[in-house]
Structure to design on (256 residues):
């Protein structure tokens, strides 16, 4: 029997459309519902929204709007809504104790991390998560490569090999798309969706990509060699891994 998952996000304190989505899940006999965050937000009906999520036992993680709500309304710290949002799990919480490990990160980002840590009961520490406002400054500017790689790997493996793993769902979607295409007389899903688009056929798409590769690959190869040289001259003695590429590009711009 195929397990059906329901996915919702960006609820933004809107219980009516949330209830409509939950009704659809009931009709479709969805067994597990996942809420990808942003429960708080634009409207003043957070309480009934949270009640619905609890009633349906939705697996929920925290979003950036939820963090914003908690920061904007500290006077509501002890309300049911705030407690619910504060207790939501995150895919990674990186707690840093040594100040030297936040070297390179902009002051506004470290101030936010210090505040986030304090909210969780960590005094004089810094808390970074996979939420974009927290993750991006760390991955772009942190001097500590070991910690940067740790948070990058966690970010890159979201929804994989954990309770939110959607690999089987993706495979099922791909399988059903292929079956639909063949039932309608097409070789592949690509043949089906491209028929009425400008590209028309997969063959033409591949031809276009090959043409682009011939034109752009030499220039891209030159850029890579230049970055590799810059990386080696600036202490990146190992192979230029994906984890370091973004940093090397940004820092190369600083010296240009």
């Amino acid at each position: 029997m195929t397990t059906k998952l329901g996915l919702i996000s960006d609820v933004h304190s809107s219980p009516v459309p949330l209830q409509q989505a939950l009704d659809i899940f009931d009709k479709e006999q969805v067994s597990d519902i996942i809420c990808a965050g942003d429960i708080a937000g634009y409207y003043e009906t957070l309480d009934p929204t949270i009640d619905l999520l609890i009633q349906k036992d939705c697996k929920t993680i925290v979003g950036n709007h939820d963090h914003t709500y908690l920061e904007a309304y500290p006077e509501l710290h002890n309300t049911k809504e705030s407690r619910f949002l504060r207790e939501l799990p995150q895919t990674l919480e990186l707690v840093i104790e040594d100040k030297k490990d936040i070297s390179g990160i902009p002051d506004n980002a470290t101030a936010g991390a210090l505040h986030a840590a304090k909210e969780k009961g960590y005094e004089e520490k810094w808390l970074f998560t996979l939420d974009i406002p927290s993750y991006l400054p760390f991955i772009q500017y942190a001097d500590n490569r070991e910690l940067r790689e740790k948070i990058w790997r966690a970010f890159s493996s979201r929804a994989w090999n954990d309770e939110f793993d959607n690999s089987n769902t993706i495979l099922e979607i791909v399988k059903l798309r292929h079956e639909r295409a063949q039932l309608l007389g097409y070789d592949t899903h690509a043949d089906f969706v491209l028929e009425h688009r400008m590209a028309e056929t997969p063959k033409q798409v591949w031809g276009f990509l090959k043409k682009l590769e011939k034109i752009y690959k030499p220039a891209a190869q030159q850029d890579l060699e230049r970055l590799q040289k810059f990386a080696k001259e600036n202490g990146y003695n190992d192979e230029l891994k994906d984890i370091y590429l973004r940093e090397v590009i940004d820092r190369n711009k600083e010296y240009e």
Notes: The chain has eleven helices and five strands.
